[in-house]
């Protein structure tokens, strides 16, 4: 649904999918959907942010990977105190998976390196992190990270 450019049509299709989906399915929720880190200083280096990931469904949620929208951003999932491999934009692990029981929470830890694009790469940025799961409605759920990079 997220690949559709018409947001009204995407919302309509998502509502139809929800209406037809089994009631006892796993449901991936991530909060917040967007973190605004404000000004991020190149001099201070990497910034970490944490999102809450939860299975609000009635069956086990299978998590199969992560992906970021840029090489400057990496992420990992902390499930039951265990960290996943680090995922980025390219060459991500393909043999990792984890699961969340109904009601169980995990952490999505996102690391942003303001120096990844060189010393002149300042200004506003928006990065997207995608979590892949077996949620029938949002199998590729996305969150965003925003900041203004300053020297």
Description:
- With about 150 residues, this protein is mainly β.
- It contains 1 helix and 10 strands; from the N terminus they run αββββββββββ.
- A 5-stranded antiparallel β-sheet has the order 1-3-8-5-6, with no helix packed on it. Strands 2-10-9-4-7 form a 5-stranded mixed β-sheet, with no helix packed on it.
- A hairpin with a 2-residue loop joins strand 5 and strand 6.
- It is globular and about 50 Å long.
- The termini are far apart.
The average pLDDT value, as a whole number, equals 92
SS field, number of helical segments: 1
Taking the alpha carbons of the first and last residues, their distance comes to: 38 Å
Our Rg estimate from Cα atoms comes to 16 Å
Q: Residue share in helices?
A: under 10%
Q: SSE order, as H and E?
A: HEEEEEEEEEE
Number of strands: 10
What form results from the Cα inertia axes? globular
Q: What percent of residues are in strands?
A: over 45%
- Strand-pairing-aware structural class: mainly beta
Biggest sheet character:
5 strands, antiparallel
Strand order of the largest sheet: 1-3-8-5-6
Which spans of ≥5 residues are poorly predicted at pLDDT below 50? none
Please supply descriptive tags for the structure shown above.
151 residues, mainly beta, 5-stranded antiparallel β-sheet, 5-stranded mixed β-sheet, 1 helix, 47% strand, globular
Write the layout of secondary structure elements.
Blueprint: H1 7-20, E1 28-31, E2 34-41, E3 47-55, E4 61-68, E5 73-79, E6 82-83, E7 98-100, E8 105-112, E9 123-133, E10 140-150
Parallel strand pairs: 2-10
Antiparallel strand pairs: 1-3, 3-8, 4-7, 4-9, 5-6, 5-8, 9-10
């Amino acid at each position: 649904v997220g690949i559709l450019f018409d947001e009204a049509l995407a919302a309509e299709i998502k509502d139809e999918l929800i209406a037809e989906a089994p009631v006892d399915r796993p449901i991936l929720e991530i909060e917040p959907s967007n973190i605004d880190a404000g000004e991020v200083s190149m001099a201070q280096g990497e910034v970490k942010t944490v999102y809450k990931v939860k299975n609000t469904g009635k069956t086990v949620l299978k998590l199969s990977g992560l992906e970021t929208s840029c090489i400057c951003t990496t992420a990992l999932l902390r499930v039951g105190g265990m960290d996943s491999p680090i995922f980025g934009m390219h060459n991500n692990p393909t043999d990792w998976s984890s699961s969340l029981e109904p009601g169980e929470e995990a952490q999505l830890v996102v690391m942003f390196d303001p120096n990844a694009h060189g010393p002149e790469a300042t200004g506003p940025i928006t990065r997207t992190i995608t979590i892949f799961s077996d949620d029938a409605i949002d199998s590729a759920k996305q969150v965003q990270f925003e900041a203004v990079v300053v020297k």
